[in-house]
């Protein structure tokens, strides 16, 4: 199999880098695809006897995988903290909008049923919370404290 065929094959199947200990004690580093429960080496980067040499081979293999493997790297170092904060802010606003919309709708239903004849705001908030967020009584109290209901 030449490199062109393996690159075409890897376009559709995810690849990973494998370090494997050989019977001689050395460690082989290779790019591998796993399909239908069987692993197949696409490219072998070499074998090494020391941890330092294995690390060099592994770095080379990762670089090759990023350029030839059609896979995007996953950011585990949290270099995108600002993006995460912005995402949480937007999601938080969406949650508040959904809660307000549900409360407005159920408040209207509460009034239409005639429960507004009972002059008790705590009952109003409790009924709306139990209908919109069906949880335990303890969780409902925590929810009401969270939403300032």
Descriptors:
149 residues, single chain
Can you put this structure into words, describing what you see?
The protein is of the alpha+beta class. 54% of the residues lie in helices and 18% in strands. It contains five helices and three strands; from the N terminus they run H-E-E-E-H-H-H-H. It has a three-stranded antiparallel sheet with strand order 1-2-3, with helices on one face. A hairpin with a 2-residue loop joins strand 2 (27-35) and strand 3 (38-48). It starts with a helix and ends with a helix.
What topology emerges from the helices and strands here?
Elements: H1 3-10, E1 15-21, E2 27-35, E3 38-48, H2 51-68, H3 81-113, H4 121-132, H5 137-146
Q: Which structural class should the secondary elements be placed in?
A: alpha+beta
Radius of gyration over all CA atoms, rounded: 29 Å
Biggest β-sheet: strands ordered side by side in the sheet: 1-2-3
Q: Give the mean pLDDT.
A: 78
Low-pLDDT regions: 1-11
Query: Strand count, sense and closure of the main sheet?
Result: 3 strands, antiparallel
Q: Roughly how many Å apart are the termini? A: 67 Å
> What is the tally of beta strands?
3
Shape annotation: rod-shaped
Give the count of helical stretches.
5
The percentage helix is 40-55%
Query: In percent, how much strand structure appears in the residues?
Result: 15-25%
Give the SSE string.
Answer: HEEEHHHH
